[in-house]
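Quick one, T. Sequence first:
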Amino acid sequence: MGETALLELKSLQVAYGGIQAVKGIDLVVRERELVCLIGANGAGKTTTLKAVTGLARSAAGRIVYDGAEITGLRAHQIARRGLAMVPEGRGVFAQLTIEENLAMGAYARSDGGVAADVERAFALFPRLKERRRQTAGTLSGGEQQMLAISRALMSRPKLLLLDEPSMGLAPLMVEKIFEVVRAIAAEGVTLLLVEQNARLALEVSHRGYVLEGGLVTISGEARSLLGDPRIREAYLGEE
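Structure tokens:
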């Protein structure tokens, strides 16, 4: 893990229709780190990711990515700087095949490594290789999640944002998805993970932030957060 901050949120505020969803948070993700953002529904987790990717406008504060301020940039400008997001609900192109979805992930690239990256995606998720010519809309929820992650990796991101990757998936599929999240992190990709399954998120992460009502209430090393009685009671279902 590098000590260089790849992403910094400084007093970030985001409002939707007069409601302040994010109320001034500070957050740092360093190079080669896996950082998670946990909290209940409506805490502001997804809104935070949308602000980072330019899908939601920040009302105040700063977003610094890879040494440059990206506050106020449009989503396509941010994506071209090597930042990719796997959205909640997966968002695959239902009418396109698996192969075509992967090609869409590499649309902004002009290097010669695209074919090798398709093979890498198939090595991570052999099930996608078996179904490579199948349209994405006919895949199961878990297979669509595999495809959404693979499509994001096709852009060779410096920073990958994952929004609720386990949502709606069977336990075995969740296990597989998180195995791959670990593998991606081990390859040196920097990750910011939003996840309702707090235990899973903290078990794979280096550090974590707890968001409550649009504010960061607790943060620290993931291992120490797993043992924190407040988190055990509120998010792990333990007394």
